[in-house]
Na+:H+ antiporter, NhaC family
Amino acid sequence: MYHDDNLPMPSVFLSLIPIAVVVAVLGFSVFVAEAEPHIALFFGAITAGLAAYRHGYTWNTIEEGFKDSINRAISSLIILLIIGMIIGVWIASGIVPAMMYYGFEILVPEWFLPIILILCSIMSVVTGSSWTTIGTIGVAALGIGQGLGIPPAAIAGAVVSGAFFGDKISPMSDSTNLTPSVLGVDLYDHIKHMLYTTVPSFIISLIVFGVMGWFLSEGTVDAETIASYQNILSENFEFSLLLLLPPVVVVALILRKTPAIPSLIAGVMLGGFVLLNVQGHSLEDFLHILYDGFVIQTGWEEMDELLSTGGMTSMYSVVSLGIMALAFGGIMNRCNMLKSLVSKMTGLVGTRGRLTATTIVTALLINIFGANQYLAVIIPGQMFEGAYKRLGLKLNNLTRALEAGGTLTAPLIPWNSSGAFVISVMAVNPLVFAPYAVLCWITPLITMIYGFVNFKMDNIA
């Protein structure tokens, strides 16, 4: 009788069955039922458990797999809930609206695209949310840019590039916290290592959009459109220098390498201070906004949709999705099904360059067939962890590749949750704006090149 840890490795066929179930149910959910991916992962976890049990693993080992996986990411799940609170309170307190208001003051036709890239990057760094950035500045930029005669695809490309760049280097980002936590990598070490690839990508994107802007812009700034947005914002929010307090303090804490949770909590509480003392809301309002998010009625439906968001409840779906994905990946990993699959890929992961490229391509394929960016970083992360260690590489090389192949490609896939979000708020299909989202596709290429030339690849001491 084998002990669980001494069982023969599951066959590739058995190991592929849970993945096939997830892909099949996700495909039905996305293309037929228009349902969320959570249940597909639930069925995948059940199938993985049954396959492991059939192979000889005990329930205790199977349970240990999903419990350990979830435990490793519990801090990120808590951070997700706090991020929901900070989004709601920073919009309600006028911090985000002020960024929008004054950002529109500096828009000029020829430099519209690079400025939007920069504004979206700043917004995303401060909020830690690419979706919030796309849903606020992104939609506003789309209306203004079209008034300048700039194609919607180019505008969407600049918005998405900036939003996801800022998201990647922000300690408040859900995916930026989730990815290193799954592999036990320090958050700030993960962000610092990503800068080697994302900063060159940002500079290249800035140059491309700068050149593009001179060829695509026509006419003058649509002053009426800008005035309409600014009037709505100024009529519904009080602007004060106190609005700078929360983001400045949070940035200062981040620079001092304060852990993410205390930094975020400071942002929430200072946002509440501004909400009460500048916008004149009550303590009851503050508590409701923290849980349910902010809701506003300006009389302009489009603006109401942009600014009515956030709150802890807005993150419940993401948190539950993360739990399901972690449970599925944890069982697959603990019961050696991922190891079985990786063992058949030794020819693809024998060198640092091939390993990096395989990681990125695997994450991309999971994004395409799994339709969710969290799966695209969790599953390959658990698949290739051992391979990176065998080649003497620190796991921050793995987390960087996961973000490049998993997170940054997500908005380029129409049926992925991120791509679907962009369609819903900007009405531009990812297949149309993908060529313009320079940063999202050039970062994976640069990351692969670093692997092949062994540049900025941290070694295990």
About this structure: The radius of gyration is 22 Å. The CA atoms of residues 28 and 34 lie 8 Å apart. The mean pLDDT is 85. Residues 75-314 form one domain.
